């Protein structure tokens, strides 16, 4: 009996199913039952080429097992496994080869949303509502990228947001969330013990370095239990239109892989169980943001207020967009069959789509001087209940796209392997028509200053278009703070124009403050009184909650730091030589990368610097 069972299992192992891959067939005895199942699946999906180079049993056996370990990982980390991946790839590659327009049958129109004006009564109301809601929110930072495109070798969130204080992006984000947590709690009736959770999506490139940055800095004041890291896996590369998986050019026992895109954040939140934990804890909102926009938290309170008051399931933060500007437009699409969706349409697809739909001039500015389709900045606010409901149906899978670089017009061969990609802002593509999808537009000076281009690329940007570099990103923070103070009644000098790393930028007074000093316009207004003025060459850093400016005339540099409970009134005439700005060449390798990529550094000639370490009431007057 046993011998027959043995014979039978042998038969099965040497089974005919593997005959299309003789080298695999010879090696089947090395594989576990699970690995045999994976091998069957690969052959069923016509991937026998993967085994062409396999050697005889006894040679490279560990490599062969490692190959199946990798296959198992690729299979388990993708919703629906490799079968779904290959099927989707074949479909999308066929569409791409045929030149199929993904928007066929759809007519574009302008969706409905809120357009806010900073500082007016409407804006202030939304801000207050948003701060109240913040204790029911969780934040998700998408941080899978390195700073290579910027000319910086570290992880992007470790870059200084500005160099007046040297605070890095991650520290600024965490300090803002903590300030929101405290402000939101103080508005809560009764006792409030929230910890606003922060999830960070990392990648192989950034995971360990993100852990290190947090660990080394005691999580920048958050409790370690408040922060969860979710690591995104890569996906298999594809060699051709038949979706044959690509082997690693350096190792024939490995599949070549590439990043899948930030759309993975949805399946990770779902499969990790985090969403359920948040939902069970009574949270109502999930806010997604990207790694290097130093202004985005200025827009968060008002945008969250819009979500709460308008009851949006999905709210995209947006900025006014110039026609044909290289930023996606938020668009309502209506299909011939009645389906509708509100979605980001990439700028190079928006113009042809409009022309094909009875707008003969395509993507043009309206009488406001801006396109009627607001610019998507990839900061998203989802209501958690409907979000979980949708992900339960899709498993977190997001509509993908493929972008092969073809060798020639026949579109039969690729220049190099491709892969499926997905973007987090494509989530609404699968939503039912009943979903409430809207947007919130705020001025770019307030909400949008991404740092993504290196100095050489930024210097080539046509005049008048945004540079999106470390130079423009830092200068935008000073402009934003200067304009906010101006609206609050402070006399701020106009900026001067200077050129750094080949980029012409407005240089405003270098004003920065810690998030806990003021999160909203009302807070800024409450901390400024009398006749205050700040000259263009001045630098001011406010590091403390209870610091008030009263009849302050600043011409120079002023740094004030105070512990909680130290109430400081800053006034009078502060005059000193201040900090000067020196040009730095980005090719100057003796200077640290994070300074070089800005094209300037501060020479701290003279300043008034005061630190208050004990609670109490103080006056700072020179």
Automatic annotation (TrEMBL):
Gene Ontology biological-process annotations = UDP-N-acetylglucosamine biosynthetic process
The UniProt keywords, alphabetically, are:
Nucleotidyltransferase, Transferase
Q: What is the enzyme's class at the highest EC level?
A: transferase
Protein name per the record: UTP-monosaccharide-1-phosphate uridylyltransferase
Q: Which family does it belong to?
A: Belongs to the USP family.
Q: Which cofactor does it need?
A: Mn(2+); Mg(2+)
The encoding gene is LOC107804078
Q: What is the lineage of its organism?
A: Eukaryota, Viridiplantae, Streptophyta, Embryophyta, Tracheophyta
Q: What Pfam families does this protein map onto?
A: UDPGP
Keyword DNA-binding appears in the UniProt entry: no
Write down the species: Nicotiana tabacum (Common tobacco)
Catalytic activity annotation:
a monosaccharide 1-phosphate + UTP + H(+) = a UDP-monosaccharide + diphosphate
List its EC numbers. Answer: 2.7.7.64
GO terms (molecular function) for this protein are: UDP-N-acetylglucosamine diphosphorylase activity; UTP-monosaccharide-1-phosphate uridylyltransferase activity
């Amino acid at each position: 009996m046993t011998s027959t069972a043995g014979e039978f299992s042998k038969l099965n192992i040497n089974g005919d199913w593997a005959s299309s891959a003789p080298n695999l067939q010879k090696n089947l005895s090395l594989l576990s039952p699970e690995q045999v199942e994976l091998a069957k699946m690969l052959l069923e999906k016509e991937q026998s080429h993967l085994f062409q180079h396999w050697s005889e049993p006894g040679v490279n056996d560990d490599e062969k097992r490692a190959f199946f370990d990798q296959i198992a990982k690729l299979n388990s980390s993708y919703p629906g496994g490799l079968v779904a991946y290959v099927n989707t790839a074949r479909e999308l590659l066929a569409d791409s080869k045929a030149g199929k327009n993904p928007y066929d049958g759809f007519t574009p129109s302008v969706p409905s949303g809120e357009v806010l004006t900073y500082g007016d009564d409407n804006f202030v109301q939304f801000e207050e509502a948003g701060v109240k809601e913040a204790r029911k929110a969780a934040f998700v930072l998408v941080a899978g990228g390195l700073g290579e495109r910027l000319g910086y070798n570290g992880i992007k969130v470790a870059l200084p947001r500005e160099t007046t204080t040297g605070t890095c992006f991650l520290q600024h984000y965490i300090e803002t969330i903590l300030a929101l947590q405290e402000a939101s709690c103080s508005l809560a009736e009764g006792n409030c013990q929230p910890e606003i959770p922060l999830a960070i999506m990392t990648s192989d490139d950034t995971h360990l370095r993100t852990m290190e940055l947090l660990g080394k800095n005691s999580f920048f004041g958050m409790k370690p239990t408040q922060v969860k890291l979710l690591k995104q896996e890569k996906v298999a590369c594809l060699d051709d239109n038949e979706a044959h998986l690509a082997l690693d050019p350096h190792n024939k026992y490995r599949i070549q892989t590439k990043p899948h895109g930030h759309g993975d954040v949805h399946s990770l939140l779902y499969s990790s169980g985090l969403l359920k934990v948040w939902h069970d804890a009574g949270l109502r909102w999930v806010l997604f943001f990207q790694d290097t926009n130093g202004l985005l938290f200025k827009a968060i309170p008002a945008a969250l207020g819009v979500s709460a008051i308008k009851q949006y399931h999905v709210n995209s933060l947006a900025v006014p967009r110039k026609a044909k500007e290289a930023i996606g437009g938020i668009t309502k699409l209506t299909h011939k069959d009645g389906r509708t969706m509100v979605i980001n349409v990439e700028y190079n697809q928006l113009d042809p789509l409009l022309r094909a739909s009875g707008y003969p001039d395509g993507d043009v500015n309206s009488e406001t001087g801006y396109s009627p389709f607001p610019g998507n900045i990839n900061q998203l606010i989802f209501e958690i209940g409907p979000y979980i409901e949708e992900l339960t149906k899709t498993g977190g899978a997001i509509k993908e796209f493929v972008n092969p670089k073809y060798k020639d017009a026949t579109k039969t061969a690729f220049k190099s392997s491709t892969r499926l990609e997905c973007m987090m802002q494509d989530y609404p593509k699968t939503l039912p028509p009943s979903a409430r999808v809207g947007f919130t537009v705020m001025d770019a000076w307030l909400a949008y200053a991404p740092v993504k281009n290196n100095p050489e690329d930024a210097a080539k940007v046509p005049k008048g278009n945004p540079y999106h570099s470390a130079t423009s990103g830092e200068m935008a923070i000073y402009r934003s703070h200067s304009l906010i103070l101006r609206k609050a009644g402070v006399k701020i000098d106009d900026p001067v124009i200077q050129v750094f790393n080949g980029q012409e930028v407005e240089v405003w007074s270098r004003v920065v403050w810690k998030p806990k000093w003021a999160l909203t316009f009302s807070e800024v207004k409450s901390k400024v009184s009398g006749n205050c003025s700040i000259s263009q060459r001045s630098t001011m850093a406010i590091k403390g909650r209870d610091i008030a400016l009263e009849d302050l005339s600043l011409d120079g540099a002023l740094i004030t730091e105070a512990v909680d409970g130290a109430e400081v009134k800053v006034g009078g005439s502060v005059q000193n030589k201040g900090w000067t700005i020196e040009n730095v060449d980005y090719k100057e390798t003796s200077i640290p990368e994070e300074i070089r990529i800005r094209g300037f550094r501060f020479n701290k000639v003279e300043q008034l610097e005061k630190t208050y370490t004990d609670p109490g009431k103080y006056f700072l007057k020179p």
